[in-house]
């Protein structure tokens, strides 16, 4: 897609969509990163080398997940003035944003001191990949701690002083720990620069103490694990370490005064070696890239302005039409989104991930399956191994009752990720059940049970297995007033003698004997001889007894002894020992 799109851009370079940045762009690319930099090749390559080292560190030594489905795009502006139009907030000197399929790191300046900034933002990417719900103070504290990484051929060092942070802590009054740990992302985004600087300084110091000091370090990983279930409040912090807030605050001041320069020595990091490509960047490509960046960051108005300008320069670009459709969908304009996406489809969109992204947003935005299905079909046509798209298309087909089509999409998936294994097998079991393929439904239900993590999930998996083992039938049951109602139920598969008159909760027993008497009183009763005893059973309602092989009519009184099998609910009813639910005459 990128090559075709760039060719389209090159074909219209004479059209001035908007002013280009002053500094030219270079692209330095490896398997894992794309560095778009307003810098020399030497500086851009140095940044790439540093990011490869960071990636290797997090893979080899950190214990955090470190994955990105596509190469991470790093955008490096030449200066603050070049960066300013794409700054997200007044206090964001650099930032990380990510989506389902693309991660961006944005920073200004390519000098060696900015390697610390690169480490900080890459840490955010890694923390996002971990899927833990960390509070802002711990997220930013960890990112600041990782910004102290120093790696060379001799080894790796983590920790040490951050002079600007130490200066802020030594010059200013600190936030109480209760305020620091309670500060939300929304509050932080609206805070003044001075408050943000103090927040970062205190978060760095607290996280550094918890992670590196002898008193706290042993419990730090367990603290991280606890924060995965809920945001880490001061109460959780104090209970975890068995110390009061005042005691932790006192330890923190001692740490800042005496130990904040502490560091740990780690093994040398060995980055993967691979091919590196260096190339020019055509003049309009950075504008496309930056428009995509703003769209990913949720800056829809700014992104829309850039894409509209690109639409004038590239009227036949399916990618631009698709992006405008996505922005309309984000803004709640489903009709404009649908039209924009139709235009992108008509223009022959070739980006499978963009098709998938649109489908997910369209589903969340309430568009109909008929509007969503073509995007997913295009995605799997462009990328046959796109498992996420196959899965979403399978769910759409299943929900529409197109079970064979759903099964085809389920089977097209090459890998079932652990995170969706339970949902996959449960949906597959349901699909097999709808198609009457009972053995396969039971097998899929068993796989769902194997991947269930809660009692509710295990119950849903068991229900699919139960459906595969049973048929739909009817059964009489009593409502809260005691009145009988006929309700649907499940009965064992291929059961020939299902009795709908057996009520839920009946203690059913079976009796083989000879019918001796029918008493047609106010309540009909029968007497059956079995094992030398006469057993009395009641029939409150003759219409609610299943009769098999019964004679055309009955007479009251003594009966010619007739072999019979009785199904009855064991319960006292007057002088009767149970209530008849079925009679099978031999």
**Class per helix and strand makeup:** alpha+beta
The CA-CA distance between the termini, in Å, is: 77 Å
Task: Give Rg in angstroms.
Answer: 35 Å
Basic shape: elongated
Top keywords for this entry?
586 residues, alpha+beta, OB fold (Dihydrolipoamide Acetyltransferase, E2P), 6-stranded mixed sheet, Neutral Protease, domain 2
Brief account:
The chain is an alpha+beta fold and 586 residues long. It has helices spanning 2-11, 41-62, 80-83, 115-130, 136-146, 163-171, 177-182, 185-190, 193-212, 220-227, 234-241, 245-259, 285-296, 300-313, 318-330, 334-346, 352-364, 369-382, 387-399, 403-412, 421-434, 438-451, 455-469, and strands at residues 26-29, 33-37, 72-77, 94-98, 103-108, 150-152, 155-159, 263-266, 277-280, 470-478, 484-492, 508-520, 524-530, 533-539, 546-548, 557-573, 576-585.
Report on this structure.
This protein has 586 residues and is of the alpha+beta class. Among the domains are: 246 residues, Neutral Protease, domain 2; 85 residues, OB fold (Dihydrolipoamide Acetyltransferase, E2P) (Beta Barrel), CATH 2.40.50. The protein contains 23 helices and 17 strands. A six-stranded mixed β-sheet has the order 4-5-3-2-1-9, sandwiched between helices. Strands 14-13-12-16-17-15 form a six-stranded mixed β-sheet, with no helix packed on it. Strands 6-7-8 form a three-stranded antiparallel β-sheet, with no helix packed on it. A hairpin with a 3-residue loop joins strand 12 and strand 13. It is elongated, with a radius of gyration of 35 Å. The N terminus is likely disordered.
């Amino acid at each position: 897609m990128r090559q075709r799109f760039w060719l389209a851009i090159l074909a219209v370079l004479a059209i001035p969509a908007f002013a280009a940045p002053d500094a030219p762009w270079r692209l330095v690319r490896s398997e894992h990163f794309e560095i778009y930099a307003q810098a020399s090749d030497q500086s851009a390559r140095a940044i790439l080398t540093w990011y490869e080292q960071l990636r290797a560190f997090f893979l080899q030594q950190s214990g955090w997940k470190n994955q990105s489905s596509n190469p991470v795009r790093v955008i490096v502006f030449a200066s603050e003035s070049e960066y300013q139009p794409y700054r997200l907030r007044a206090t964001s000197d650099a930032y990380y944003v990510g989506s389902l399929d693309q991660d961006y790191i944005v920073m200004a300046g390519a000098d060696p001191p900015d390697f610390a900034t690169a480490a900080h933002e890459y840490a955010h990417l890694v923390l996002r990949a971990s899927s833990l719900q960390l509070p802002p103070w711990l997220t930013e504290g960890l990112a600041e701690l990782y910004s102290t990484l120093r790696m060379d051929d001799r080894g790796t060092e983590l920790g040490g002083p951050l002079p600007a942070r130490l200066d802020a802590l030594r010059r200013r009054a600190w936030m109480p720990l209760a305020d620091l740990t309670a500060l939300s992302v929304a509050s932080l985004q609206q805070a003044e620069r001075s408050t943000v600087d103090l927040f970062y300084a205190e978060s760095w110091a607290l996280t550094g103490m918890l992670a590196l000091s002898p008193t706290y370090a042993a419990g730090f990983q367990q603290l991280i694990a606890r924060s995965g279930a809920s945001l880490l409040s001061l109460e959780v912090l104090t209970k975890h370490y068995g110390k009061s807030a005042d005691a932790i605050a006192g330890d923190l001041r001692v740490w800042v005064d005496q130990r904040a320069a502490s560091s740990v020595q780690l093994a040398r990091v060995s980055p993967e070696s691979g091919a590196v490509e260096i190339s020019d960047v055509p003049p309009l490509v950075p504008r496309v890239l930056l428009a995509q960046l703003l769209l990913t960051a949720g800056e829809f108005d700014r992104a829309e302005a850039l894409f509209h300008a690109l639409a004038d320069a590239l009227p036949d670009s399916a990618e631009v039409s698709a992006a405008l459709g996505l922005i309309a969908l984000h803004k709640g304009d489903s009709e404009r989104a649908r039209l924009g996406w139709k235009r992108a489809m008509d223009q022959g969109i070739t980006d499978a991930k963009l098709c998938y992204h649109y489908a997910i947003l369209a589903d969340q935005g309430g568009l109909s399956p008929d509007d969503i299905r073509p995007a997913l079909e295009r995605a799997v046509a462009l990328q046959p191994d796109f498992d996420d798209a196959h899965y979403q298309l399978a769910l759409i087909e299943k929900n529409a009752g197109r079970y064979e089509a759903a099964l085809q999409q389920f089977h097209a998936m090459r890998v079932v990720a652990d995170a969706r294994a339970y949902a996959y097998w449960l949906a597959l079991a349901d699909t097999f059940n709808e198609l009457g393929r009972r053995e396969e439904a039971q097998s899929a239900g068993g796989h769902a049970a194997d991947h269930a993590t809660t009692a509710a999930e295990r119950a849903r998996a068991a229900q699919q297995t139960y459906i595969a083992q049973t048929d739909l039938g009817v059964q009489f049951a009593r409502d809260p007033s005691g009145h009988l109602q006929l309700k649907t139920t499940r009965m064992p598969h291929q059961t020939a003698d299902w009795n709908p008159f057996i009520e839920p909760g009946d203690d059913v027993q079976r009796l083989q004997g000879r019918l001796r008497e029918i008493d047609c009183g106010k309540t009909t009763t029968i007497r059956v001889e079995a094992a030398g005893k006469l057993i009395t059973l009641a029939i409150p309602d003759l219409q609610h007894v299943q009769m098999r092989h019964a004679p055309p009519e009955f007479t009251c009184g003594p009966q010619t002894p007739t072999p019979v099998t009785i199904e009855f609910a064991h319960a006292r009813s007057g002088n009767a020992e149970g209530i008849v639910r079925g009679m099978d005459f031999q």
